[in-house]
Amino acid sequence: MNKKVKSLYFSATDTTKKVITKIAETLSENIDNKRTINNINFTLPEVRNKPISFTEDDVVIVGVPVYAGRVPNVLLKYLNNIKGNGAIAVAVVVYGNRNYDDALIELKDILQSRDFNVIAGGAFIGEHSFSKKLAQNRPDEKDMKIIKGFTDKIYVKLSTENNYDSVVVNGNKPYRQYYKPINKYGVPVDIRKVVPKTNSNCNECKLCVSVCPMGSITNEDVSIISGICIKCGACIKKCPNNAKYYDDEDYLNHKVELEEEFDYRREPEMFIGE
Ligand SMILES: Cc1cc2nc3c(=O)[nH]c(=O)nc-3n(C[C@H](O)[C@H](O)[C@H](O)COP(=O)(O)O)c2cc1C
């Protein structure tokens, strides 16, 4: 099989990256492809400024995290400019153990509209961006075995079929509205304006500046957030000194509620057709 395996993903706290890398590496090994995998990580803003296109020879493993039950809306412009040119794609979403709602069907639809042939899809679980205990350390070893099994099936499909039907995945159409958290009185709240604070542990190492997917943390003074904050968790979870935190009451209430309500293990769902 003369296919080139490529990966394309956004991953602020690296859970999507782990899932996508495992699929891409396993598939490449199965194909016995000695070529290095071309990984396009579009987490940082400068990468999203570059146009991107694929060819019919490519198998592209595409992954995004689920934000509010959907494909993160800050990524739509980038995704809607990719040129698939008939490449095969595997659509993957990674969610924090609540639900992936309509994110997978939305990602599949976007890829199809960009001229990709989407032959498989999967929804996997990753540690929640807001929490260090909700879906803690996932994807874990059990997930990795499931991901390998899924990838082996993709390989069989690729090596035995020439014409692929578009895969059917779970999700509603029209898509549900973006999921909204509620406060302790049950009233929906808007946490979009919430930004992280900086405590005295900060030694100005600037790591947070370099990992912010929105380029919103000011280099001269990292306590100043100059652009939008998507609450992706990168500056909080990657800070070596635990210097970033949220103190917004609605945000913290939502985080605790998620930790309590979804304190059970959800398992990956995969779609690969007949
Ligand atoms: C703004 C925002 C909204 C999120 N919404 C959901 C959601 O609707 N359902 C869910 O289960 N997880 C949700 N998550 C959690 C992420 O999908 C999950 O932690 C994912 O593994 C993060 O991927 P990453 O490590 O590649 O950044 C949300 C995270 C953020 C930052």
Automatic annotation (TrEMBL):
<keyword id="KW-0408">Iron</keyword>
<dbReference type="InterPro" id="IPR008254">
    <property type="entry name" value="Flavodoxin/NO_synth"/>
</dbReference>
<keyword id="KW-0411">Iron-sulfur</keyword>
<dbReference type="Pfam" id="PF13187">
    <property type="entry name" value="Fer4_9"/>
</dbReference>
<dbReference type="GO" id="GO:0016651">
    <property type="term" value="F:oxidoreductase activity, acting on NAD(P)H"/>
</dbReference>
<dbReference type="InterPro" id="IPR017896">
    <property type="entry name" value="4Fe4S_Fe-S-bd"/>
</dbReference>
<dbReference type="InterPro" id="IPR029039">
    <property type="entry name" value="Flavoprotein-like_sf"/>
</dbReference>
<dbReference type="InterPro" id="IPR017900">
    <property type="entry name" value="4Fe4S_Fe_S_CS"/>
</dbReference>
<dbReference type="GO" id="GO:0046872">
    <property type="term" value="F:metal ion binding"/>
</dbReference>
<dbReference type="GO" id="GO:0051536">
    <property type="term" value="F:iron-sulfur cluster binding"/>
</dbReference>
<feature type="domain" description="Flavodoxin-like">
    <location>
        <begin position="5"/>
        <end position="155"/>
    </location>
</feature>
<feature type="domain" description="4Fe-4S ferredoxin-type">
    <location>
        <begin position="220"/>
        <end position="249"/>
    </location>
</feature>
<dbReference type="InterPro" id="IPR047964">
    <property type="entry name" value="EFR1-like"/>
</dbReference>
<feature type="domain" description="4Fe-4S ferredoxin-type">
    <location>
        <begin position="192"/>
        <end position="218"/>
    </location>
</feature>
<protein>
    <submittedName>
        <fullName>EFR1 family ferrodoxin</fullName>
    </submittedName>
</protein>
<dbReference type="GO" id="GO:0010181">
    <property type="term" value="F:FMN binding"/>
</dbReference>
<keyword id="KW-0479">Metal-binding</keyword>
